[in-house]
Write a structure and sequence with these properties.
Layout (H helix, E strand, L loop, with lengths): L5 E6 L8 H10 L4 E6 L7 E5 L2 E5 L8 H14 L3 E4 L4 H10 L4 E6 L3 H6 L3 H4 L2 H16 L2 E4 L2 H11 L6 E3 L17 E5 L8 H13 L5 E5 L5 H11 L5 E3 L8 H6 L3 E4 L8 H8 L4 E4 L15 E3 L4 H13 L1 H18 L2 H14 L7
Parallel strand pairs: 1-2, 1-5, 2-4, 5-6, 6-7, 7-8, 9-10, 9-12, 10-11, 12-13, 13-14
Antiparallel strand pairs: 3-4
Amino acid sequence: MAEKQTIFIAHNWSCVSVSSISYYLALELSKQHRVVFLNGKGPRNVYTRINENLEVYDWPNKRPVKFKDFVFFVRLLRKYKPNAVLAHFSTVSVCVVGAWLFKVKRNCCYYHTLIEQNRLDLPANKSKGLRFRFAIFKKGLVYKLASNIIAVSQYAKLDVSKHFKVDAQKVKVIYNGMPDTACKNNFDALKIVFAGRCDYSKGIDVLINAVGLLLNRGINLQLEVAGGGKQRAQLEEHIQLKGWQNAIKFIGPVPYGEIHQFISSAYLIVVPSRIDNLPTVVIEAKVCMVPVIGAAVGGIPEMIEHKKNGLLFKAEDSGDLAEQIFLLINDRQLRDNIAAAGRKQYEDCFTIEKNVRDVRDLLLHGPRDFVN
């Protein structure tokens, strides 16, 4: 039997959305190894023992970026002396620097959000300012201290190497995975859905204008937008001005426990991002056998092969998007074939089991025994 190791995982203790990759990883590792999970959100229990090998601690702050969080992390490093550390999102700086100082052999972190996405969602004076550039410089120093960076797409690997001057050899691509669901496509109306933030980078305005073009051509369809965000009020005003309010509805955020039912009720789902890494909603749609139309940008083309397991359109081009939607409306057989192929792709590439297996191997054995 392999020697028992101690693994730190810093993420959100939750089995929903992208947090599920860490939740199921912790459970799998704890079958043979000790796991210390550092929870960033959710109930503030301070400390919870899940099983004899798995303990969950809460950070002092929900966003662990302060000195108090660093001190807390150092105390845990001293107590448990981990063999590997894996950090996500706002935990990266504290975890990577602390693990480097304590010479943790496998000091790993995720790279989730692309630089351009951050830039697009900031006001122009901030996205081009000295503070933004200094933040990139600081994060680049942190990434250089990591032994490995997990990128969730090939595009993200290029992005982190380019913007942070990180050696591409230590960036490993591991696609996110999602748990399966019993919800399968059961639409009863010609309904398109969007699930995500109403922020500029997500391109919801591109989708609204595409649907508007089809409405103006006399095509009877509906669009439901699930999610909040900075642009919602502005977009609703635009819809009113165009007279599309009877066909395009904002329904607000959908609780994650209901997201698969929401997606399953759609004829198709659109991911119109101006830039994106590996959108979780694409995987969720494929789980539910709902066809996806996505912008041909960022990591999305790695998830969609045009006219095979989805459709692609030129990013920011509402006219092209309208034509792709029209194609699936008029060709039910193509629509159903794409839905079935998307489900097969999920089973081959995006299951939670595959993600857990790949990340587990990296944490336990390191990059020399890990095949990218």
